[in-house]
Design goal:
The complex is a heterodimer of chains A (237) and B (222). Chain A has 237 residues and is α+β, with helices and mostly antiparallel strands. Chain A has 3 helices and 10 strands, in the order αββαββββββββα. Chain B has 222 residues and is an alpha+beta fold. In chain B, strands 2-1-4-7-6 form a 5-stranded antiparallel sheet. In chain B, a hairpin with a 2-residue loop joins strand 1 and strand 2. The chains are: A alpha+beta (237), B alpha+beta (222). At the A-B interface, helix 1 and strand 1 of A face helix 1, strand 1, strand 3, helix 2 and strand 4 of B.
């Protein structure tokens, strides 16, 4: 009998504790309302694409085709064109003056944009000497005139500023975070070289154009690009 | 005999339950009439929206930007600091016909290596005058000051009673601005900082205003 009473007491105690816990838990549950919110953060980045097109027909210009200037006509590449011309083939036309370069931007975070144009101009002069032609390279770089002034060979859209020290074009506006599929006009046309001709020679000019586009997180341009501020004055040179 | 003992025990338990239940409920029963005493049990209901949508589960974003603590000491950099902040925008819409308090808890910066954050109540902006960073000498100082600011703001918020609205629907908003904190990372984590992910947990509650136990408000333990 004594063992049974002790056992019952323990049972009653357990039941009491459980009931008390249930009461407390139930009561507290409706004294407040809200949520425990969890958010996961991942670093943002940029997507940047340089798009070359011919402004006359919006056809794309691929790195394989390139854009060249040859006495007002275009070429696929200088060596192969000479060969093709000699063989009498017609060539597709992407005249330098029609070149159009846009930047396509997706930016998860705010940033700044800059572009460097890499262009090489090779002018050769073919001299007639009876039945022989002598080819001479007149110049390979076409950045300065006889007075040492920088010659810009392209028409640049509004919003870009050229920095002579770094030789980059800087887009003066901040690209906001969350930007998607933004197309920024950069070059709207080229300024062609006028090849000279005479009774003893004719010139051929071949221009090769490429570009480097960079985007940097807006608070890091000083450290990454080595400049103290983003150029703001609009200038096309 | 045993059966009688069990029944007796259950009866006693029932009485105990009723006593505790009445004691707990008493704190927020409302008195509607002097002639006929009618009591109703009130509750708080509502919705919690995070970043414009009702909160269901973990939210993810990929717009975190790392920022140097030194820039927070420069007044003219705050426009960019705000633009580069990742955000948690919380809106709580709730219904109560009794006074309430707002209880928001953020973890300490020591628990969240790799990010730093600040709480802004309502439409409060974050500007160079929000916090005095002039005493900051290193990243640890910076994180400590942010902790102190957040704690102070949230404790102050908790002390304020929110009167029951006449339309019974009230709205409370707050934002948390978050930036990546490169200098808080360990040397082994720094090389992979662009691939790291961070989580931030916020406890956001609307609670009844009257402390049922009659004691003082305790932000840490309530």
């Amino acid at each position: 009998m004594k063992m049974i009473n002790t056992s019952n007491k323990k049972l009653y105690l357990v039941i009491a504790v459980v009931m008390l816990a249930l009461i407390t838990f139930t009561t507290i549950a409706w004294l407040s309302f809200g949520e425990e919110i969890e958010k996961i953060f991942k670093p943002g980045d940029f997507e940047l694409q340089t798009v070359y097109t011919d402004s006359t027909d919006s056809s794309s210009i691929t790195p394989e085709k390139g854009v060249y200037h040859f006495n007002g006509l275009s070429k696929i590449d200088y060596e192969s064109v000479k060969e093709q011309v000699d063989l009498g083939y017609e060539l597709p036309v992407h005249h330098l003056e029609n070149i159009k370069i846009d930047l396509k931007v997706n930016a998860k975070i705010a940033g700044y944009l800059r572009v460097k144009v890499l262009d090489e101009w090779v002018v050769t002069r073919d001299y007639f000497n009876f039945d022989r032609v002598t080819t001479e390279v007149v110049f390979k770089e076409y950045d300065e005139d006889e007075n040492g002034n920088i010659i810009l060979h392209f028409d640049v859209a509004e919003g870009w500023v050229y920095d002579e020290k770094t030789k980059y074009y800087y887009y003066s506006e901040l690209i906001e975070g969350g930007t998607t599929n933004l197309s920024i006009p950069f070059i709207t046309g080229g300024i062609s070289y006028s090849p000279k001709t005479s009774t003893t020679y004719y010139e051929v000019c071949v221009a090769s154009v490429s570009s480097i586009a960079e985007m940097v997180q807006a608070n890091r341009y000083e450290a990454i690009w080595g400049i103290t501020e983003i150029p703001k004055e609009v200038s096309n040179g | 005999m045993k059966k009688k003992s069990v029944i007796t025990c259950l009866f006693i338990m029932l009485v105990v339950v009723m006593m505790f239940g009445v004691y707990q409920i008493y704190a927020f029963l409302t008195h509607e009439s002097t002639s006929v005493h009618q009591f109703q049990i009130d509750e708080i209901t509502g919705t919690v929206n995070v970043d414009g949508a009702e909160y269901v589960s973990v939210v993810t974003t990929d717009d975190l930007a790392y920022y140097d603590y030194a820039d927070f000491k420069v007044a003219n950099k705050y426009d960019l600091i705000n633009k580069m902040a990742s955000k948690i925008e919380v809106e709580i819409k709730f219904n109560s016909n009794f006074n309430t308090r707002t209880l928001i808890r953020l973890p300490k910066h020591s628990e969240k290596i790799g990010i730093c954050y600040i709480v802004l109540i309502g439409e409060e902006p974050f500007s160079s005058t929000s916090i005095d960073f002039s005493s900051v000498n290193d990243n640890d100082d910076f994180r400590t000051i942010l902790d102190n600011y957040n704690q102070s703001k949230l404790e102050d918020l908790y002390t304020k009673n929110v009167n029951a609205g006449s339309t019974n629907l009230q709205t409370f908003k707050f934002n948390v601005l978050v930036w990546g904190d490169y200098y808080s990372l360990s040397d082994s984590d720094k090389p992979s900082y662009l691939n790291k992910e961070y989580d931030l947990n916020i406890d956001a509650k609307i609670v009844q205003a009257i402390d049922e136990y009659g004691g003082t408000l305790d932000y840490e333990n309530d």
